[in-house]
Fold this sequence. Notes:
Blueprint: E1 3-9, E2 15-22, E3 25-32, E4 53-62, E5 70-71, E6 78-93, E7 96-102, E8 107-116, E9 120-126
Antiparallel strand pairs: 1-2, 1-6, 2-3, 3-4, 4-9, 5-6, 6-7, 7-8, 8-9
Amino acid sequence: MPRFALLLHDWPVPHRDLLLEQGETALTWRLPLQADDSERAAPESEIGQPAALPAEQIAPHRLHYLTWEGPVSGGRGEVKQLDSGPWQLVAEADGELVFDLGGNVLSGRFRLRCIDPPAGWLLEQLVE
């Protein structure tokens, strides 16, 4: 089963990277951090439900980063793994991915929806 990872990356500004293994690379989205959630895997809204997050699709990453923690080559900061596990694609349509994550923190059904092509996406957890 393909793997996913959620990384905390401190360069060029602190953010999270969501990696989804697909073939020989990992599809990757950059997720913003709020001032108070640098160590949490996923922010929550004021009512305790998962919040929808803007997600910027960036270049696919090497599979090496699914398990890596430490310095990134080329002086591009450091990464820390926040969560990882298996993932499974449920549905794919034009500009939308629905998938299940099986991590310790990120678990359940999620959707990535392209709202501003080509790089502007929205990540949300779906309530079943």
